[in-house]
Amino acid sequence: MLPTPSSAQPAPAAPPAVSGASAPTAPTPPVAPAAPAAQDPARTVAPGHDHRHAGESLPDAFWSVARRLRETFRETTAPWEITPAQARALVVLLRRGSIRLSDLSADLRIAPRSATEVVDALADRGLVARGPDPTDRRAVLVTVTPAGHAAGAAIGEARAAEADRFFAALPEADRLELHRLLRALLP
What we know:
mainly alpha; Arc Repressor Mutant, subunit A; 3-stranded antiparallel β-sheet
């Protein structure tokens, strides 16, 4: 069995070969283990918490949670055969009402071409409709259809229930603090 770095001790040095009479040599003292390196507080695990993630940095922990939320979101919206991008667009449209495609693109923080693709997919499913903007004939308004309202409401309820399950691991005070901290990071 190979020794682990923390249990490895250097082998004592062999006494030098002396011709003729051998003189006694003093034993080599063992080398003291190195002092532990200072630990990054963002990589420590609080007592009582899961040690599987010990040593994980704050950004790594954040992205792990974000990845898990995205996976949960995909699973939650699977029955409606809607992508996360389409669901986000539907949520924005439900919140804002009829808006220009350019405004939807800005709200979603995606390129106009990507917003067009998302709206095309929603329109193909009958969840949104395009129409002229009465104030600018060159602009297009996107409006949620009755089927889109029904799908959006059902998806919203499913997402809220899943979010409640996801965040249930945190006490209410921690959830409120997490929400406050995340909002503080947004522009």
